[in-house]
Amino acid sequence: MQSQTAVRQVDRWIDAHKKDLVDLTCRLVSIDTTVPPGLNYPKISQVLARELKELGVTPTVSHIPEATIKKRVSPEVGLKGPRPNTYATLKGEGEGPKILLNGHVDVVPADPSGWTNDPFEPTIRNNQIYGRGAADMKGADACTIFSLKALVETGAKFSGVIIPTFTTDEEVGGYTGVNYLVDKHVITKDINYCISSDSGIEVLHVAALGDAEYVITVKGVAAHSGRGWTGVNAIEVAAGLIEKLKALGQEIGKRRSKIPSEPMYGTKKMRPGLYVNMIKGGLKGNIIPDTCEILVDRRFIPEEKAAIVEKEINTVVREFAKSSPAKVSMKKILGYDPMLTDPNHRLVKVVRKQARKVLGRDTPLAGSQGSTDMAVVTNLGIPVAVLGATRQDSNIHGIDEHVRINDLVSITKILTHSYLELLAFPAR
Ligand SMILES: [Zn+2]
């Protein structure tokens, strides 16, 4: 049990620093870190490193070598420029468990035309911060910083170690963020708990879907449209393949996981899917197109394995190719494994309990219908609990994305309370 005095002190500290928490969120949102390509990463890592320094620790900004990016990330993902990941180690008093904290610094693109204000000029209305990334997840990154400041500034004693990490490229999967820190042995098997705040405040995520994206290229033969029969129309061939993939998608969509889903999406259990989400082809109205590319997004439940998932699509594509006049090839361009933590793990119980105390309501356990880079962490055997500041109406990835200031305060408190219990001093 953590000391009640310490809890009261950190709460008072956090309430008194609400304005600074909002200010840091706004500063992070105002740095446009759109990926692809991954803009202004050095700038945001500088800000975060400076914040970590204020905790009295020496942060590390680790750059992934260009050659490693080339080797590990498909050019289709469109990454450009340096990819610094920022982290630090906070040591408590004496031996104790290790907690990893993770947040991502990148945001998805924003088309300013639909927005009330510029997406990268954060504005505050009705106690909410508007801006691209306010909810997903720069607000939560600020919470992480302030949850640690609350601990340090109030002099709360804790045992063990806390490792905050701020990583790149979560929104485009691939390798350059959390995955790289695993390979670099910054994130190691001996970490006992991981808390990610890349999610919402309504439920506590213990699982997430896996995700694999494939580009399928149909190669036909170009020809003058007036003698169209002399060519092989790649778009028309691709249309037939899309029908086959749609049928597979319908089959997959009937499957269910054992893990409960977020109730608001109309499925009680986590549900997989396969969708054709992009198509590219054709050069001009009077040319038979020789190339058509389609992008397939496959979301899979923790019960499905990545290799089987790929084989399933591959079988459909190969079968189709056999009787097709065009050449058909398939390439995986990005992938996440599903994430899964034992719902009975102590970490999950502690975070849920602390959330209930702060919010005055339960955060039911659920699997996310999204995908997360946290899967590489659970793959190491480290349990991950995911609770963040977004809500169903935050419109993440959409127009006028926003986060409630009160939720930022709550998440900051839940984080600090969880450290105080998990890293109770003296160690249990
Ligand atoms: Zn996110």
**Distinct small molecules bound, one entry per kind:** zinc ion
Question: Quick check: average pLDDT?
Answer: 96
Tally of structural domains: 2
Strand element count:
19
Main sheet summary:
7 strands, mixed
Global morphology: elongated
Helix- and strand-based class?
alpha+beta
Provide the CATH architecture of the largest domain: 3-Layer(aba) Sandwich
CATH class of the largest domain reads Alpha Beta
For the termini, the CA-CA separation is 9 Å
Helix share bin: 25-40%
Q: State the CATH superfamily name of the largest domain.
A: Zn peptidases
Report on this model:
The protein is α+β, with helices and mostly antiparallel strands and 428 residues long. The chain folds into two domains: 4-208 and 338-422, 3-Layer(aba) Sandwich (Aminopeptidase); 210-336, Alpha-Beta Plaits (2-Layer Sandwich). 33% of the residues lie in helices and 22% in strands. The strands form five sheets. Strands 1, 2, 3, 4, 7, 8 and 18 form a seven-stranded mixed beta sheet that branches. Strand 5 (123-125) and strand 6 (128-130) form a beta hairpin. It is elongated. Zinc ion binds next to helix 5. The site of zinc ion (ZN) has 5 residues, from helix 5.
